[in-house]
Amino acid sequence: MAKSLVITEKPSVARDIVAVLGGFTEHDGFWESDAHVVTFSVGHIVELLSPEDVDPIYKRWTLDTLPILPAEFKLKQKTGQSERIRTIKKLLARDDVDVVVNACDAGREGELIFREILEYLECSKPTKRLWLQSMTANSISKGFNALVDGSQYDGLGAAASCRSKSDWLIGMNATRALTRRLKGRKEKTAWSAGRVQTPTLAIVVDRELEILAHVPKPYWQLQARFAASDHEYVGTWFDADFTAPEGEERELRDDRIFANARANALVEQTQGKAAAAGETRKPSRETAPPLFDLTSLQREGNRRFGWSARRTLNAAQRCYEAHKLLTYPRTDSRCLPNDYRATVDEVMRSFSEGGPFQAEAGHLREQGLENVERTFDDAKVSDHFAIIPTGKLPDANLSGDDERLFDLVARRFLANFYEPAAWNRVERVTEVAGQKFRSRSRTLDEPGWRAVLGQVEQEEQALPPLVPGATEAEAVGVRALGVELVAERTKPPARITEARLLSLMESAGKDIEDEEIARAISEKGIGTPATRADVIENLIAKSYLVRAGKSLRPTVKGIRLVDVLRRIHIDRLASPALTGELEYDLRQVEHGAMKAEQFMEEIVAYTREITDIAKTFEYEDLYPDEAALGACPLCGRPVFERSWFYRCLEVPGVSEADDCHLRIWKDKSGRYMDRQTARALLEKGETDELEGFAARDGRTYNARLTLEDGEVVLHPVAGSSSERVVESPEYEVDEEPLGPCPMGCGSEVVETPTHFQCKAGIAKQAENDEKARLYEATPSEDGKRRKRYKVPDEDKPCGFLVPRTVCKREITRDEVMKMLGPDKKTDLLTDFTSRFGRPFSAMLFMKENGRHGFEFAPRQPRGKAEAGAEPEPGAEAAAPAPAGTAPTAARLAPKPGRRKKAAVKKTPARKAARKKA
Description:
Layout: E1 3-8, H1 11-21, E2 25-27, E3 30-32, E4 36-40, E5 46-48, H2 51-54, E6 75-77, H3 82-92, E7 97-103, H4 108-120, E8 127-129, H5 137-144, E9 148-149, H6 154-182, H7 197-213, E10 218-227, E11 232-238, H8 260-270, E12 275-286, H9 294-305, H10 309-321, H11 341-352, H12 358-367, H13 372-375, H14 400-416, E13 421-432, E14 435-446, H15 450-453, E15 472-489, H16 498-506, H17 515-520, H18 532-541, E16 545-548, E17 551-554, H19 556-567, H20 576-590, H21 596-616, H22 619-622, E18 630-631, E19 638-641, E20 645-648, E21 664-665, E22 667-668, E23 671-672, H23 675-684, E24 690-694, E25 700-708, E26 711-716, E27 739-740, E28 748-751, E29 755-758, H24 759-777, E30 801-803, E31 805-806, E32 809-810, H25 813-820, E33 829-833, E34 839-846, E35 852-855, H26 886-892, H27 908-916
Parallel strand pairs: 1-4, 1-7, 7-8
Antiparallel strand pairs: 2-3, 3-4, 5-6, 8-9, 10-11, 10-15, 11-14, 12-13, 12-15, 13-14, 16-17, 18-19, 19-20, 20-21, 22-23, 24-25, 25-26, 27-28, 28-29, 29-30, 31-32, 33-34, 34-35
């Protein structure tokens, strides 16, 4: 009997399909029934050949071998995936398998994973596509009853392949070229560049340069206090005839006075004078926000909880796959299909019968749904519709991030169908001696959808009517109680948060507040909803960005990369708009409006352009001597900008040793020294207080800089240090113990905000901390400070301790309970992030000391591992070789024929060449 081979993207999805279809027996790496064989991938298990695999000549990164343009893109299996490949190959070769079902994630990346496996294994059997919007049993059953021919998704497959190959071409060539030209001798990491990551970096860099270039300007605001018949209120002076010049709207506003003399004159003019007020009161309706797509969900997760985009995506993915509570999360649509109304009604019915949203869902079933035309719109639904609940109610196992994210999506779903919020807006203008003072307020009369989201706050200053019952009033006499001048200084624009960066990536760097306009141009955005989180994490892992609270800040390396790209006129690589055009072209390939061959021809030409410029630019052309920043305080010569620093003009024929030693390096304790800062040091010998310096522990602080004998000296400002960015978030605590401690101490394992820990261990640790505090606070007999307290062996706490966040992934209560079971390890877990910023999968197991370790899939023998393969993340593997064993000794032994590299003599000529670079 002929069977279909079903290949899923993850083992958890395979288990769900097996459970729904039924009748399966489990084998080694697959399940089989009378009609189906089900197996799984683990994400990408094959990948494009690396350059050194294409040709050994590419092992060394040299400019003369660029650009690397393979005539054919071939695939290889990823390290550690040989067992998966063998299993799938064996199943594909079976005579009774006549069709292969693509059950990978319903999107561009899932299509690529499936097609690359079949290409690598040279399978030509017919294919079918399973396209799931949710992981409920009903959805899986319907999906298998509606399988379509795989050729219907050839456009999506072509776009996926073009994306993969274009990223390879641009990334490999640009990274090698820029690394060879820009990498310093002491640097250990490459200067990575890519089609999506570099323009994303440019967005953050441009904002940082705005912040650094900002010069605070003093201004004043005039505020007056007035008394009406039954209330007092505050008004702010404004110039009714003011219009800000184009481009200066952010700083120049109608209520700011930049001349101190004018501000004082206005105080004298209005102090103690008679006043008359007029007002307009208008009701307004505020419609509920639309349903979530992935990007808007990630923005809200960052705004509400401070979550990274990846953390939000991981929680949404678990709510979709593991809990079956949400529909497919990797979507760019905020609408539902027209025929989905019955499904929404069923979700409302389920919610109204019990659970945390019973009242809200019951209200909607009684009153009916609002915003129906906006929500149900086939024209605005792409491959997937908006993220909504499936109707399944959460059980007691839902906790932590997953619980909060489900609550976020469920409440947005209910609020979308609620009636509008009703506001009463008041605009009041009080005139005093010909000058106008403005007062505004907004009062929430009917909360509507805001009650569902818990957003029912009122503004501080309510303005009762000047004339009771009137919606308008003119020239009503009020008393001026006093006028106050408030001194302020203009502030730089705020740093970009991760939520804001997601919006800017969606709009290709255009600062658009209106969501409808942003939606219209989102087809030309940077990346896709499914990849943007990884792009941001990749930039952080490669030391181009750092997190500063909820904001993102570029490093000096990130600023220099974008600066150099623009100076050598590789503008396209650092241009969000032009990169958005490439993303638009990929969509055209997907929809059949552009041929894949045409797209790749453009990418090859683009790659040649990048490498040609990067190979041939002259360092002298980067920073021409066209505008000196000032005079050198040591020798009087003009100071110019160079690649790594600012220095005075070189004198021909003078050796570096005898030359002036002034150097203002562009990297000062993690802060970029822009031209304005360098100019201030040269002109005044010091700067005002500057922010953005970084300590080694991740804290940032403010400091003043002085220029002393040609050296820049840093003076930290006391009390300006920020809180250190804590990578491990805190979670809500379920006080119910998980079970007995596996270390045999007789206690129980409980939750804390950051760990799963032995209860006795917590108590003992607290006791030891108190002993240490008392010990270290008591001076020794000689009056000196005591050394650090050492815990005696008999007082050491129980060792069981599992973090609730491991490699940027939340570890759930159920997963820890698996570790407490007889196997002492979890199932295969996905969505870990290595220190290199790459996702990986592993099982967590409990070591003998009570800590956790990683157990990975079996690897190939060392001699057969692919060239250039990157080792797994720096966590401990299941069975590491003891130190000093034969493999370790062999690795440390001298290699035959390999000689120690001779030291290079630093001659004046070499130094001059280095300085010139």
